[in-house]
Fold each of these.
Amino acid sequence: MPIVVNLDVVMARRKMSSTELAEKMDITPANLSILKTGKAKAIRFSTLEAACEALDCQPGDILEYRPDPEKP
Amino acid sequence: MWNKKRSLSLSRVCVLVFIGATLAILVAGPWLVDWLAGTRAEAQAGIPGYSTTADPADRGLFFATLYTGGAVALYLLVQLYRLLNNIAAEKVFTDSNVTLLRRISWCCFLGALVSGLSVLYYMPWGLVAVAAAFMALVVRVIKNVMAEAVVIKQENDYTI
């Protein structure tokens, strides 16, 4: 998928565990895992807001666009 | 107070009743065939060239239609019961339910085909053929809707 979620990178910088982040974002660890592993098909603005608040970062730090190499 | 759980239970009971009725019809097949073949002979009474007694070949054809159709109907009812069980287990929008609906529609088409071919020896089977084909179409459309619902649900499940 062209949109890549870099939660792992930001979490490592802030030295925050998955459990702690899930708690701060008020989502289940399972849902956080879906986000981290790139299986999510969409993210709500409220979730993105919670992530940015918990990690003290910008949406662009978490989300990255990498175009599909096969697409023109 | 009527609720969804009781409605589901009623549906399952109805399917079980239909399964029982289908099995009863299959067991009583020989008597049913004698009656059907007899009515056909009566209908042809007075028509020059036609026998007024039940032709043994007719009995064979009626048996073929009844038991082929009965087997298809039983398989269809079992799929329907499995679908209701899945719904009761709160597994509604799943790929397995789409598969079950697909099988049900193909059973209806098969029933329509068997009945349609049986028109060659007994015209009233045509009514059964038309009804079965119509049901097949309705179930097929429901299957298409369910398949889209599964996609929407999966998208929703993976929206965090």
Amino acid sequence: MADFTEEELETLEQLARIRLKKAEREELTQHLKNMLDYVATLQECDTEKLEACSHVIAGTTAPLREDVVHDKIPREEFLENAPAHAGGLLKVPPVIQDEL
Amino acid sequence: MYKLSATEIIEGIHAKKHSAEEVCSYFLQRIKHFDPQVQSLLTVMEERALKQARALDQKIASNEPIGRLAGMPIVIKDNMQIKGEKTTCGSQFLKNYIAPFDATVIKLLEKEGAIPIAKSNMDEFAMGSSTEYSAFFPTYNPWDTTRTPGGSSGGSAAAVAAMLSPVSLGSETGGSVRQPASYCGLYGLKPTYGSVSRWGLVAFGSSFDQISPFTRNLEDLVRLQDVIAQPCKRDATSLQTPRDYSFLDEYKKPVKGMRMGVPYDLLEDLDPTVRDVFLSVLKTYESEGVILEAISLDTIKYGLGMYYILATAEASTNLARFDGIRYTTRSEKAETLEEVYELSKDEGFGPEVKRRILLGTYVLSSGYKEAYYQKAQKVRTKMIQDFDNAFNQCQVIAMPTTTTTAFRLGSVQDPIKMYQQDVFTTAANLAGIPALNIPCDLLSEDGTELPIGFQLMAPQKEDRRLFQFAHLFETARAFTACPTLFDQEAK
């Protein structure tokens, strides 16, 4: 059985910026263990001489374009989906919290 | 009118046999009457659709030119943005989100006169295989409403199977159109990666996602693909070279004498009834002059492992944007900036989304990235080679789409068991190759007839070959059945 601890779950919470409920933790830990066991089969596959797949359609490169603005979304329309806004800006709690 | 194909509806509009408003009202009425029994839709765009229909009728009255899809109603999975309309992705997080722009596919459809009439239900953020993970409500299979229509595009599949719309759009990351297509008796195409623009499709797994149509017959599918499979400047992964042919011109070309590869060893564990259906499909092709060729696809057994590493990794990145800052939802309990992120996500995302974000975060994290993510990317390269080799021996590959017919709601509780729904479908998304579910038979289960399909795969950019092989099958064995519950007029 793959090793996956409560500590590792906490690390993932930090990385993913999510706070899980107490009731969910055990189930999620077990699920992650099960999934890691499940995907362990990939280790059997010999990939020694292979490159990681960077693009599924070989030979494709991202096309370049002129540095010209298009597809503008007007500020008022954008702010319609904002959870909180003031003065035309997105309102958020203080980013820097230390006393200066 | 509910039995008319999209092609017949469009021809009727061009020939002035019926008006766009008549067609639109008819299907809106059908939706009102029947959708409560399937719950396939999240938003019905009645006002918007009727406005478009009336504008189209004005154009017709003034003898102005009208498009190739004029008057055709279409249902759109709720992860594709339509300006001014809700785009919820089946999630509480986006339940109030109004799209500020149109997806490219919407622009292409509307340019040709198609009329989007509704947004359909889906597993939350396209993560699921039964539509039971929708944060709002499950969708029921029109063939047996105690069963799921499959997922994640279950709403789009159910809407077309119940004949609430002649066609719909879903999206695929690991089989989310082909599996519901098999369960609902429909054609469901996953095109070559990059052939349909992802601009305006809410991203789940960026190297897998493709918008994919559902139809009840092949000609409708071909006409739809001709319109939506176009290069797009706003999607850097879109194939930039336009096709110099139309699918409509190509799809009836003969395939007699061509080779169809079959990975027979993958059939060994199949339920005998399902295997018999698949073998009967092969017999049909053989009797029509197609040569069957046994092939080996060794990497298919790694498909689910690869998919659940790579797609979850990509999802963890794509869903990071839903952080309580911009997209409508912010936890009211949040006091600090960190709490805005942490609590909004906890409240907004359902359990399956959380599972996948956490797994995706893990496989990308320091100390594990090489063992999981990089390894899976190398196995993916091997799978692409595997298919390249197979396509040296044959022009098309045939496989089952699903291992069973539609399962009962609530019968699959273990998430890993749910993931196994995708065992035959993820390969095409991993390899970027086109794949098509073709409805072929009805199987009897507990006294109910349930559809099942089979799947064809072709090399990258050879989507037309799928249509050619599908045309051969449709000519020999068209699937014309429809669910009895919905085979009647709305009152």
